[in-house]
Structures are given as structure tokens and as C-alpha cells.
Amino acid sequence: MNVLAICAHPDDVEIWAGGTLAKYAARGDRVTIAIATNGEVGSPTLPKEEIAAIRHQEAIAAAKHIGAELIWMGYPDEFLFDTEGTRLAFIEAMRASGAEVVITHWPDDLYNPDHTITGRVANDVAIMTTVPNIVTASPKLDKIPIVYFMDSVAGLGFQPEEYVDITETFETKKKMLAEHVSQVGDWLQEQYGSNAMEMIEVTSRFRGIQSGVCYAEGFIRAKAYPRNITGTLLP
């Protein structure tokens, strides 16, 4: 199966869906990570171009842990908007990856507008990926991908409807996140007083308690005609 995780910033997908992507990859699925913005404001000291380049390399290193492909969209950090160009870029990411499953931000996650826009656009354009008259570099998909929303920051306001047991891939999730040195050891602590490693330990353990396993990640599937399914496509 072809799986696309499309997120707003470098490190987002590792925090909220890294264990699930590792589980997909371990069973042989093709995993692609698309990052909408370049992370250029994610440093208290470095200029935009320098921190963006660093974060690009961190994202590449994180993806390598599970053999995932990386799509770097390069939109300005904190200034992602729902435009025709953005929609076409998201459609192209889905087509280029052959996405059958798309994992993205929950649109009601109010932590950051880039998260909100990414989740909304990803869900909105999924139905457009099969339309021949919407032309991008890659050919149209034969089937509309199924969209899953990943957890919100700190789990605020998010009640998972499906859980993935990531007990066996939790260490891989931590290794992926650890590649984002500029964020884990610097920016998030400086800006929010937040330890990202501690956050994934607590939230993954809490979702695990909710679902009866050691560590878990929670999701909500987008439910809309004509892309409802029975069962689940989560690993």
C-alpha cells in the first residue's frame, strides 16, 4: 500500500504519527513524507535560510530511519494559505506518491495555522486527485485516497476513533524525532518550554492506556462520500 503523511513542518509527523509510519514501513508498505513549509522561523538565533536548510537535512535523516521518501514543498513557515497553487501542490504530492492513505493534521488543531491549513487542504483536495481535468506533473490517481487525521498537540480537544499500537515501533519513533536536533534541543524548549521527547512519551503512553497497549497513536478518519470504507487501513 502507498501511504502519504503530509504535514505542516519538519518534525510534525514524527511527533504524532512516527510510530504508525514505522509500522507501515516495517510491513513493506511504501511510505512518503511531504512537508508543506520549510521551517524557516524555527530558531531563536539562526537566520531563515540557514535554519530552513538545517531542517531540510534533519527531515531527510528522519525519513531514512524507515526508508521513507521525502517531498519538500518549501512554502514559507507560518504563512501557508489555501490558494490554487497550494491545492495543486498537495494534489501533486498525493499523485506522485500514489497515495492510497493520507495521514495529515486534524483541521481543528488550533495550535498553529499551518497545521489547520495543511489538514484542511489535504482533506479538501483528496477528492480532486482522480479528476483528469485537474492537471499536475503526475498522472491522476485511479482511486480517491482515504484521509486520516492525526492527534492534536498535547491531545487537546482530540478524541481518537481509531488507535495504532506502536509499542514495537516506539523506539524508532524516538530515533526519527531525535534527528530534529534544532527543534528537540533548542527551539521548542526556548519558545514553549516544551520537551518534545517527553511529550511523545507522555501522549503515546496515554493513548496506549486508552487503547489497552503500552504505546499508541490516535487517529480520526475523514468520513465523506464517496470515500467511506468499512474496516480500517491503519496498520
TrEMBL record:
<keyword id="KW-0378">Hydrolase</keyword>
<dbReference type="InterPro" id="IPR003737">
    <property type="entry name" value="GlcNAc_PI_deacetylase-related"/>
</dbReference>
<dbReference type="GO" id="GO:0016787">
    <property type="term" value="F:hydrolase activity"/>
</dbReference>
<dbReference type="InterPro" id="IPR024078">
    <property type="entry name" value="LmbE-like_dom_sf"/>
</dbReference>
<protein>
    <submittedName>
        <fullName>PIG-L deacetylase family protein</fullName>
        <ecNumber>3.5.1.-</ecNumber>
    </submittedName>
</protein>
<dbReference type="Pfam" id="PF02585">
    <property type="entry name" value="PIG-L"/>
</dbReference>
